[in-house]
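Aggregate trends can hide what the representation actually does to any particular protein. This step matters because it turns folding into a mapping between discrete strings. For completeness, the protein is quoted in full, as a sequence line and a line of structure tokens:
=====
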Amino acid sequence: MQIDAAKDTESISKKPKIITVIVNERPVTFSEHKATGLEIKQTAIKQGVAIQEDFVLFEVKGNSPLKQIGDCETVTLHEGQKFRATAPDDNS
């Protein structure tokens, strides 16, 4: 019985964990725990978020000021993490 439990635990740990983040109020799913700013935007676009690759990406953290995420900057993704992407000429 213990061998079966060990095999079950091993198979569970090998399954990729899906992480859902929010980009411009839309859910975007990732199978990796890390992504660059550009990868976040590209994945969001592929999943139907109405943004473009040249948009500026920000991480939204409660009442804290927005943190800009560069295209080459790697972010560790967390379930429910929020991002906002705005056009480069948007002053909002």
